[in-house]
Amino acid sequence: MPGYDIQFPDNCCKDYISEILDQDGMSIDDFKGPLGKEFNVSGCYRNILYKPSEFDAEIIKYTEEHEKLVSTNLDSVLGRSFEVKNEGSRSALRLQFTLPRSCYATMLLREIGRTNRF
């Protein structure tokens, strides 16, 4: 994300960002505005790819369409125990993983859905 504190590479990416800002009558310097610290945008870089940690996948068998397959935070708070029967004619994929801030689980699920692994 562009901002006043980003080191732009000396290549076409820098030129492209500058061109887009020019179209809106802006420059990188505008991200450090005169309205005070709370309106400044320092910018940041994000990884294009990130490998999730603590990844686990499991196929669960079940019978009923609306059968409960995972415990919730509410179950934990209320001290409810939960056990999956893991039997029946239907199959579900249960995933557990950890991602850092600004990484999106929906993107991970989309990529998993594109494969034939499960």
What's the arrangement of secondary structure elements?
Blueprint lengths: L11 H12 L29 E10 L10 H6 L11 E9 L6 H9 L5
Summarize the structure in words:
The protein is α+β, with helices and mostly antiparallel strands. It contains 3 helices and 2 strands, in the order αβαβα. The protein is elongated. The model has no long low-confidence stretch (mean pLDDT 84).
First CA to last CA: what distance?
Answer: 35 Å
Largest sheet: 2 strands, antiparallel
Task: Kindly estimate the percentage of residues that lie in beta strands according to DSSP.
Answer: 15-25%
Strand order of the largest sheet: 1-2
Distinctive features:
118 residues, alpha+beta, elongated
Task: Describe this structure in a few short sentences.
The protein is 23% helix and 16% strand. With 118 residues, the chain is of the alpha+beta class.
